[in-house]
Amino acid sequence: MQNDSADMPNSSVAISVKQARNLALVGQGFDSDESRPVTKRRIMKAIRKTNMLQVDSVNVLTRAHYMPIFSRLGVYDPALLDDIVWGKARDRKLFEYWGHEASMIPVEDYPLYRWRMEDAKSGMGTWGRIARIQREKPDLIKGILDHIEREGAVGSSDLEDKGESRSEWWGWSDTKTAMEYLFWSGQVTALKRRNSFERVYDLPHRIIGDIANDPAPDRIDAQSDLICKGIGAMGIATEADLRKYFRLPTQEVKTCLARLLEEGRLLRADVQGWKQAGYLCPNVNQRSRAKPTCLMVPFDPVMWERDRIERIFGFNYRIEIYVPAEKRQYGYYVLPFMLNGEFVARVDLKSDRKAGVLLVQSAHLEDGFAKGDVAGPLMDNLQRLAGFLGLGGVKVVRANTFSKYLADVRLV
Question: pTM for the complete prediction?
Fold first, then answer.
């Protein structure tokens, strides 16, 4: 389909349901060739497609940021990603900050988040306790910064009085709160993580180099650039989709969209079945195709927004980690399974490290799909995932009808 509407900001492009699905998957990097070796270069290319890897503390399967690369590129050496994430300072390709949530973000995008750091310095856009600490305890903040400047990288547990912690679960002492404020405001950044998940902080320029000290761009310019990156990653999106991808302010997104449409950097799109207006890049190939077969974690960018998943894929997904066990419908850590670009099943997975197996605690087939078509490709993906995680095989608990069928699948 040819389109010359880039010079007509008020015109719209007609997009079918099928096109929207393909654009969404191609934008996320699912058009890759899994037969090629996975190198650091390919990993970084995949990360730049999504703009970030979300970080999360849940480790029932594996840390969340390892899985989107596996879903897109196949089996790879996790040490390659570790080196990209926590490699030598100044050679670092990623920095940790608040993107969608806590995320690993390409270093070259650091300036685009400076507006958020400046907001945090004045107490805007952060949680209440973090916003208050800069007003109530400026001497504590200055003392921590002086210590890091003088002594080097440090974790909050190295500084805090063990008796000061107010919550046995979270440990949010004033010291940890102040450190989180410094992180959110960009005055420190994460050098590494230790003791499973605790950040160790240092001054940004020591970790990512001179880019940390570059002048901050105009906030509307930066947010407009983020929106363009977001539409590239999503392929097709509503205003709400674009706002939520980077957690951008509502009114400023409206300002940016008006500018981007006027400049021809975005096009409006009428997407079949959507109540809201859509947007896409003017140079996108609307005939792009992607039909991936893969498992996705709840923290994959494809899975971030429940409304978007249902709107594009007709798939109702809810993360049930925070749902009481007796109220869960599918399980604790449920991964959707996509077959040829459609969500066809979901599996509740756990790495049983003691037994050395990938444990499938339950498996559920989506309506309209045949178990004979789905079970074989699903088991193949589970076996590959087990190998990726360093586990010896797959064990399926015979929890329901489809689980029993899946347990009897034998791969050649």
Answer: 0.91
